[in-house]
Amino acid sequence: MKREVTIAREGGIGMAGFVFGQLFRFAYNLVAARLLGADALGTYALVVAVMQVGEVLAVGGLDAGLLRFVSLRVDEERKAVIASAMKRSTLVSILVGALIVLFSGAIAGLLHGGGLLRLVLCSAAAGLPLSVMTIMAGHAIQAYHRLLPKVLATQVIQPVLLLLTMMVARSASGIDAALALPFVIAPLVALVWIVPGFRQMTGISPGDVLRAEGNPEMRSFARPLLAISLFTMLSHWIDVVMLGLLSDVGTVGVYQPAARTAGLLRSVLFDFAGIAAPMIAGYHGRQDMAGIRDTYGMVNRWIVSIIMLPFLLLLLFPGELLSVFGQGFAVGSNALVLLSVAALLHACFGLGSTVLAMSGKERLSLINQAGALLLQALLHWLLIPRLGLDGAALSTLLVMAMLTVVRMTELRLLLGIPFFPVSLWKPAAAGMLAGGVMFFIRHLLAALPPFPMLLFSACAGGVVYTLMILAFRLEQEEREVILKFIPFLNLSRKNKAP
Fold this sequence. Notes:
Layout: H1 3-35, H2 38-59, H3 62-72, H4 75-102, H5 104-110, H6 114-142, H7 148-172, H8 175-180, H9 182-202, H10 206-211, H11 216-246, H12 249-285, H13 289-316, H14 318-322, H15 333-349, H16 351-358, H17 362-387, H18 389-415, H19 425-444, H20 450-471, H21 476-485
Helix pairs in contact: 1-7, 1-12, 2-4, 2-6, 2-11, 2-12, 3-4, 3-6, 3-11, 3-12, 4-6, 5-6, 6-7, 6-9, 7-9, 11-12, 11-17, 11-18, 12-13, 12-15, 12-16, 13-15, 13-19, 15-18, 16-17, 17-18, 19-20
């Protein structure tokens, strides 16, 4: 099957799961804001920040190791690689969970969260090994170029149960149970669901995992990726954590909707990067630099095309979007605009980190992330006390802009990847025109309630954007993908596998 069709198919699956999962995660934040209040939402955000850092430590870079080494191995060697990674990550997750429980009181005190934060941290720590096993099983299946099981487990089952369990527990037992129980129930059900598919795809049983030996080569590859992932995750959550350090959980709760709403743009990158990563690793193994450049340009163009319209909505209607969370949350409007621009930069150019990691330049990517994290911490420390929520958002934007320039310079010098591929001008130009239409509608219909104005602006902007993309003409890859999945558009033409 052609490369672009594979990426489109699996990326499309990832996108469908992403849209579904993000809708339910957005719904969780929305319902939690209205049912539980800003303090509880801030507690949830701080727990997620701590647990996602814990997940990164437990996975240890072995998720990316699976994507690379499974692509380079066959038969029994593949099974040995997967079993080794599963065993090591599970054991480390148990250790990390125990440490979080042990230091939960100190963490809660440091972040001004009190007893509720400590309770939820302990509950989430109990579910950590379940989440890590689900992640590793999903990545093992993804290494065979099948993204659907991982998407269903992590983007459908977990967010749906997270929301439903919270609502049921809130009605039955109160706020404490509503925050604590979902962190155990959701990952448990997801793991139970994905295990049969994992065994069928890989042929690995629990006994194989228990008997697995270490894999020094993969561990060596994974160490810098662990550091990269850790720095990336810390960079992602450092604004929330430092707001907790320098303010209180209520401020974190007000900031959370803006940060996570802007974060929707970043998630598109993660979906496409997941399926592109093993392909880029394969090209690098064959020393096919042209394949790496072509894959980067194609995936980057698709990401920009998909996120442009949502970005315009966040940029032009921040107050209206945040008002759905309830009174008091619209104060984060300026932060949402700044974070949306930062997320746009990350979504447009963040694939460069994946290219560096899968092309043997993981240590360089590590240096990039470490420098960015240190600078971000410094800027947060300086700006949050002075500007509050806007200071956290501005720090994130400044660091992302500098990291983008550094990363693109490296890609240009090492792999010959241009700073701004010519093909990106189409979604950029179409976005500018659609944004102008949406801006005009915003002022023309300013008297309307927020939701009708948002709906009308989105529809009008979407029509203009689609028409302009079509007027600029699709690239060859887009035409081949459309003909592959909608063959009746051209019955005389068939795609042939390479």
